[in-house]
Write a structure and sequence with these properties.
The complex is a heterodimer of chains A (268) and B (374). With 268 residues, chain A is an alpha/beta fold. Helix content of chain A is 25%, strand content 16%. The N terminus and C terminus of chain A are likely disordered. Chain B is mainly alpha-helical and 374 residues long. The termini of chain B are far apart. The mean pLDDT of chain B is 88. The chains are: A alpha/beta (268), B mainly alpha (374). Chains A and B meet through strand 4 and helix 5 of A and helix 1, helix 3, strand 4, strand 5 and strand 6 of B.
Chain lengths: 268, 374
């Protein structure tokens, strides 16, 4: 059926008394009159008239209420960053925990609150207890490598069932420091924090069993850090030679303690 | 005479057994380290990561549209839904509105994929519990669904069938009619499966009261999808954060009452009936028009972060995308995998049960290791 539509010649039925193909604006201007030889003046006048007409058409087009394009044919509307400190939950959090809200931003419909990392448990308890955010959807991290206020962002994304509201917390963290675990607030956080530890090397204090989860115990490095090579590491290569013994590849925990890799541990 | 026997192998009170990673009932490469007291499970510890491919790291090196084929490889039995999740998140980040026809095509593909995924779940779950017959019935219908996918996009498993801004192709000739015939016949097929299982005494003995989850626990452990709804929480992303055109579609969210394995089975069966209902509405209302929005050739994002999620057959599948200014690839793309979060509750659910119940609980969680390990 669609094939038929495409093969049909695409000419609109011409209005009576109007040459086919002429633009509607040109109707009645005598464009199809016989053409005698024109003097230069006449030519200039004609050009001027045509120009005036084109401009008039342009103006008319601009003035006429343009038919609104459906949004999928218009240019995408890039979302804007907006201040979200007026959001009721952000305001309540700022009132409940002093100094909890460093910044609040709304982008693409998501509210993001920047918080101090050292008060994360207090803030999460306030949000869960007083504001009803009983569901932790996701917990992850971002590595900004050389950022001034700390290398990592730990991101918490939580949900409230009553009105399906979601809010995101972002805590900036320095590479050498650690952040408190929120496993006591939501039990979901257990594996999510383990994954962040595994992938980024961020330590969560008070986590019941902070072990690697996707890679193995003794793996060299943390894969989602920006300085970890995308192509991966050779099992024989130590990419953090100052931290891990050279040539150690996947280092077993007992080797880590002794600090001496076993010769047969080298990749083949 | 007092008991003077030397301690034997059978006197040991707790025994450690490794279940998997090469066990047919673990649905992939899941390993569960079990502490057993006889046949009873004292503790279980899932060990995952055997299928880790670093997908999130790979996303950081690829232009936005290039990421979509890689989403297929995460939950490989529901690749259309994975594509949809990524596209929904990207469209939110870039401010793209997709044309209605594209949205309807996407919804149809996603619901077909949900049916296919639930059929795989039902087949493997039933085989794990000793009922091999449903497998032959469910895979018959799954094959018909995969045929529909094949005629739409050429692939059967890793579909790569959605684009940022719409759907990649117009529906081929006769597709709507074929899909319509399948949708009409499907309720009868679901009846067949139910006839085999729902009132089956063995099935009930194996599933009722196994792996009970209270609604409070389900929320605290972050369960989503059928495991959450089986516990009686009426929550579905398609309803609370409608994407594509789900706000125009009528459907119900089935929930369970007791939160056990049998209820989750009933919820998924009811969900299949709702999927059929959604498909029927999509086919009847399928609007005309383009299937792609007008988007720039090179997609550039501004600095920001956006989270978009869809109701995958396993639960809430979310993509959290962070971009820098004028970037053509994600700075960070986090996938919130439903199976990963759902599997976390396994030890809670099996503690005190028998080893055979562990198989039932793994089946009822409906996990796919490709998505857990990414």
């Amino acid at each position: 059926m669609s094939d038929n539509e495409k093969t049909t010649p695409d000419h609109a039925p011409a209005a009576p008394g109007q040459p086919a193909g002429a633009a509607p604006e040109a109707a009645g201007t005598g464009a199809d009159a016989p053409r005698p030889a024109l003097t230069d003046d006449e030519k200039a006048a004609k050009i001027a008239a045509a120009k005036a007409k084109a401009e008039a058409a342009k103006a008319a087009k601009a003035a006429a209420p343009e038919e609104p394009k459906p949004p999928w044919e218009a240019k995408p509307v890039t979302p804007e960053h907006q201040d979200a400190s007026a959001d009721p939950d952000v305001a309540a959090l700022a009132a409940a925990v002093d100094g909890a809200v460093l910044a609040a931003d709304s982008f693409a419909g998501d509210v993001t609150v920047t918080i101090p990392a050292d008060r994360i448990v207090e803030i999460c308890r306030a949000l869960k207890g007083d504001r009803g955010f009983t569901f932790l959807v996701d917990l992850t991290a971002i590595d900004w490598l050389d950022r001034e206020q700390g290398r990592f962002d730990v991101v918490y994304w939580m949900h409230r069932f009553d009105d399906s509201k979601r809010i995101r917390l972002v805590a900036a963290l320095r590479e050498e420091s650690s952040i408190a675990s929120v496993t006591g607030v939501w039990r979901t956080a257990n594996w999510l924090e383990r994954e962040v530890y595994d992938m980024f090397g961020i330590h969560f204090e008070g986590h019941p069993a902070l072990e690697r989860i996707l890679t193995w115990e003794g793996f060299n490095g943390h894969p989602l850090r920006k300085d970890f090579p995308v192509e991966g590491i050779d099992t024989g290569a130590a990419i953090y030679p100052d931290v891990y013994p050279p040539g150690g590849g996947p280092v077993r925990p007992d080797e880590l303690e002794s600090g001496e890799p076993k010769a047969e541990g080298k990749g083949d | 005479m007092t008991d003077q026997r030397p301690p034997s192998l059978f006197d040991v009170e707790e025994m450690e057994v490794s279940f998997g990673p090469q066990h047919p009932a673990t649905h992939g490469v899941l390993r569960v380290q079990l502490k057993l007291d006889g046949e009873r499970i004292v503790d279980a510890k899932p060990i995952i990561g055997y299928l880790h491919r670093g997908t999130e790291k790979l996303f950081e090196t690829m232009a936005f549209p290039q990421c979509i084929p890689h989403t297929d490889r995460m939950d490989y039995v529901t690749s259309a839904t994975n594509n949809q999740g990524f596209c929904v998140a990207m469209e939110k980040l870039l401010g793209i509105t997709i044309p209605p026809r594209a949205a309807y095509i996407r919804m149809m593909l996603a619901e077909l994929q949900r049916l296919a995924s639930h059929l795989v779940w039902l087949a493997t779950h039933a085989i794990d519990l000793g009922a091999i017959t449903p497998f032959f019935y469910t895979f018959r219908e799954r094959d018909a669904i995969l045929d529909l996918f094949e005629s739409y996009c050429g692939a059967r498993l890793t579909l790569n069938t959605m684009k940022i801004g719409g759907a990649p192709f117009e529906l081929p000739d006769g597709w709507v009619e074929r899909c319509s015939a399948l949708v009409d016949a499907f309720p009868g097929h679901i009846d067949e499966y139910e006839e085999l299982l729902t009132n089956n005494r063995i099935w009930k003995r194996r599933t009722i009261g196994v792996g009970v989850v209270s609604p409070e626990d389900a929320i605290d452990w972050g369960l989503t999808g059928p495991p959450l709804r089986g516990s009686g929480v009426r929550w579905d992303i398609r309803r609370v954060f409608p994407y594509d055109r789900y706000d125009e579609i009528e459907f119900e969210i089935p929930i369970g009452a007791n939160g056990d394995t049998y209820d989750r089975y009933l919820v998924r069966i009811a969900e299949m009936r709702q999927s059929v209902r959604i498909l029927r509405q999509c086919l009847d209302r399928l609007p005309e028009g383009p299937v792609m929005a007008k988007i720039p050739k090179v997609l550039r994002a501004r600095d920001g972060m956006a989270y978009g999620s869809v109701e995958a057959p396993k639960g809430e599948l979310g993509y959290f995308i962070v971009t820098t200014d004028k970037a053509t690839e994600p700075y960070r793309c986090r996938v919130r995998p439903p199976s990963f979060v759902n599997l976390q509750m396994l030890p809670e659910m099996v503690r005190g049960h028998l080893v055979a119940d562990l198989v039932a609980v793994i089946g009822t969680l409906d996990i796919v290791l490709g998505e857990i390990d990414r």
